[in-house]
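Internal QA ticket QA-208
Title: Verify multi-chain structure generation after dependency bump
Assignee: T.L.

Test input:
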Amino acid sequence: MNEPTPNPDRFRLAILVLTLINTIFAAALSGLQVDANIRADKASRDSQYLALLAANELVRIGHQNAYDSEVFTNTVKDTQQSLVMEFTALELEQAEENESAARLHSQSQVAQARSEQGTALSLFYSDPRYAPATEADIPDLEGYLLDQMKLPNDLVVKQNTATDEYHQWNKKGDAYIAVLTVIAIAFFLLGLAQSTTRLRLFFAISALVIMFIAGAWTGLILIG
Amino acid sequence: MTERKFLDPARMDVVIAVLIALVSLTTALAAWRTNVVGSSAADANRQGLIDALKKGAAQNENWRKVYEEAGHAATFAIESAATEAMESSDDESLRAAAKNLRQYLLPSLQLLSEPLGTQKKYQKPDGTFDIEKRFADLEAEAPDMQALDPAASFELADRYSSEQRWLTMGTVLLAISLLWLGLAEMLSGRARVVNMILGTGVYLFGLLFFLIVEAVSILGRGGVL
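Actual output:
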């Protein structure tokens, strides 16, 4: 006849322990979220700084290329001008137009003087990395361009790595926020479990399931 | 008798309430300080990027100036060589032209090519111009720009970020102690005392941890907050 009255404090300690575990979990997750944000900020800064360095290096290379190629093309032009004038002077000599031939010969020497000075000034002839092995060869223009682009290319590779790192940590930080929101739901359910007697177990189990999901999600973020 | 008086529920309620208030206040202060340190890290990063932009702009201008000078210096050197060739030519008209070039054109070109094309210290043994040296000299002419050090700002930002990480851990410890004290408020008897002692212990440990992190970080920055 007499039904046993339900104990109002039943499972209350278990719920307190669950709340405690949830709090510690939330605290640890906050720490992880702060850490992910710090790493994302650092990677973002590095990415911006490296982009700036690469851009500056490209500007410097632009100035250097303009100067090197101008000296080089003028030198080639003067060399060819000198040769053509010399050939023409020889042709005129054969045609016995000696006066014109002598004038052209002098002009050829002037062009040659320009060419020799240009050769002395040009990196393509003075630097052993690019200088032609024989007079018949041309300078190693490809090697020059590869060397010029090495530093900016290296900087861009580092910049891309930093950008990828930024996206990775930023995504983790966002995911931790989502897990913290899920944990807030678990807190809400644990609060409900504290305040009710009849549905206490239902709310406590629901909170436990949500805590488990949050824990698994955190694990996936950590290894991801 | 003494123990019973100490465990008096009404007295314990007040003690725990005071402790909770104290821990809440400390946690709020710790959260504030942690945020301040985070802001300092962001400020240092921002300063570093601004310095890098300023320095980069100044360097770009210096490179432009150096290569402009180099262009003029090359023209001067080439035209000087051509004039010398004209002077030693058999052609009378070329010799006459050379005389005028030396009188009118070369001085103007020389003026444009200064100092890279005229000063010995900028001539390399292989005949080319020492462009790097001229660039270094131009940099030295603007010591305020040379003093800008983005890497130093980034290093400072990293130190602040590292401190922020540790301070967050300290704040978490303080928050956890609040939970134990909350449990103590709800429970009774020995369990209440145990939870209160645990909460107070975690709080004191968290506080000490926080203060040590602060002291070490501030000393590491040479006394800068």
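Spot checks passed. Chain A touches chain B through 49 residues (CB under 8 Å).
Status: verified.
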